[in-house]
Amino acid sequence: MNEPAEIAKVFCIANQKGGVGKTTTAINLAAALAALKKRVLLIDLDPQGNATMGSGVNKNAVESNLYQVLIGDATIVQARVASESGGYDVLPANRELSGAEIDLVQMDEREQQLKQAIALVRDEYDFILIDCPPTLSLLTLNGLASADGVIIPMQCEYFALEGLSDLVNTIKRVHSNINPDLRLIGLLRVMFDARVTLQQQVSAQIESHFGDRVFDTVVPRNVRLAEAPSHGLPGIVYDRNSRGAKAYIEFGDELIKRVKKEALRAIARPPRSANL
Questions:
Q1: Where residue 197 sits, what CATH number does that domain have?
Q2: d(CA 123, CA 119)
Q3: Where are the alpha helices (DSSP H) in 112-221?
Q4: Would 276 be classed as within a structural domain?
């Protein structure tokens, strides 16, 4: 059997709970994949623009950003900028993006604007990562409508389990009503401290419930990852030898292998079912 040709994959990095390392994961996964010789575009779908700034791009100095792309005033080719430190491209965002909510409501196919924009550049990349805001909004729906799947970074804490249930239900609704290609790619345990018994227990619960949907990689709580954004650098660039950086490199490698494995399975898979 011939190995299938590598094609661009579009993944949302999403969690409806804030402060769970979502943007840290988006930035460092993009940098890790780039370090592993993959062509990567990171789309900042959050008006706070943290993924933009954390990639070393001044969100207030860019000529065009995601807002102009969504309303049709610019293409991704015109708006993207290079993260010199990270080795990947960024579709930047800033506070202007907050206005897109109002503009999108008035547009036909308002949930499909980002998908249509991505279609024009999809063959230029191996991975397109979308850093979603922590709320379920038209922006988030645009991200989910564009994606092949969702990667959920989560802390191993009690309240995170409740938020996880809500997000999985959201993915199922979008799968049923907007994007039949959308599925849960996997859960990534982040900010993990093995010394905390509760975190060990929650981690075991997640593995028991989601099985192989849980990535093997576990990202430890790491001060170097937390420091990196203030320097405009991905953590794996700021301190490549830190435990957090090594974990994200490991995660990038695991994701590449999982995508390749899924592609091989798809050859023999029967017509798509409604399963996530």
A1: 3.40.50.300
A2: 8
A3: 113-119, 138-146, 158-177, 197-210
A4: no
The Cα–Cα gap between 64 and 179 comes to 28
Provide the domain count of the chain.
1
CA distance 21 to 27: 10
Other C-beta atoms closer than 10 Å to the C-beta of 134 total: 18
Inside any domain, residue 55:
yes
Could you tell me if residue 13 is inside a domain? yes
Residue 194 structural domain? 9-265
Burial of 124 (0-12, 13-18, 19+ CB in 10 A): middle
Per-residue pLDDT reduced to its tens digit, 31-43: 999 999 999 999 9
- Transcribe 230-241 into DSSP letters: GGT--HHHH-TT
Assign 89 a pLDDT band (cuts: 50, 70, 90): very high
CA distance 245 to 55: 15
Does residue 245 sit within a domain? yes
Q: Are 191 and 20 in contact (CB under 8 A)?
A: yes
The DSSP output letter for 223 is H
Q: Which of 181, 185, 187, 131 is nearest to 164 (CA)?
A: 187
Q: From CA 225, how far away is CA 246, in angstroms rounded?
A: 11
CA angle, corner 107, sides to 42 and 103, nearest 5?
65
Burial class (CB in 10 A: 0-12, 13-18, 19+), 164: buried
